[in-house]
Amino acid sequence: MPDGQENQENTNVPTVEDVFEESLLTNKSVNKRTNQAPLMPQNKFIRKKRKRIEWTQEELDELEEGMKKFGTNWTLILSMSNGPLNHRTNVQLKDKARNEKRRREREGIPLGVFQKATG
């Protein structure tokens, strides 16, 4: 083969730089033996952590009233709340009810409506 044809065939073979650049774009490891970690973050679904806000007695009373009316329907309790629970989520209501039940059991306080909470 003449030298010109040999060089043309070799230009179709990707170089190490080409493979490395492509791996960065596709977030794949270049070589598993070298244990090179990709430079892009693996977790595409990073959650924003909320700042912890203490529960007030007013919120606790509102949660208790809501549980008396609607049981453990957290979404309905939240939607019918007229103020104190507006910055809480339905999951936070569920967790608070469960934790309040545990606290009352531990301290020997009557459970009341929190008996309906799971946990």
TrEMBL record:
<dbReference type="InterPro" id="IPR009057">
    <property type="entry name" value="Homeodomain-like_sf"/>
</dbReference>
<dbReference type="InterPro" id="IPR017930">
    <property type="entry name" value="Myb_dom"/>
</dbReference>
<feature type="region of interest" description="Disordered">
    <location>
        <begin position="95"/>
        <end position="119"/>
    </location>
</feature>
<dbReference type="Pfam" id="PF00249">
    <property type="entry name" value="Myb_DNA-binding"/>
</dbReference>
<protein>
    <submittedName>
        <fullName>Uncharacterized protein</fullName>
    </submittedName>
</protein>
<feature type="domain" description="HTH myb-type">
    <location>
        <begin position="47"/>
        <end position="105"/>
    </location>
</feature>
<dbReference type="InterPro" id="IPR052450">
    <property type="entry name" value="TRBD-Containing_Protein"/>
</dbReference>
<feature type="domain" description="Myb-like">
    <location>
        <begin position="47"/>
        <end position="101"/>
    </location>
</feature>
<dbReference type="InterPro" id="IPR001005">
    <property type="entry name" value="SANT/Myb"/>
</dbReference>
<keyword id="KW-0539">Nucleus</keyword>
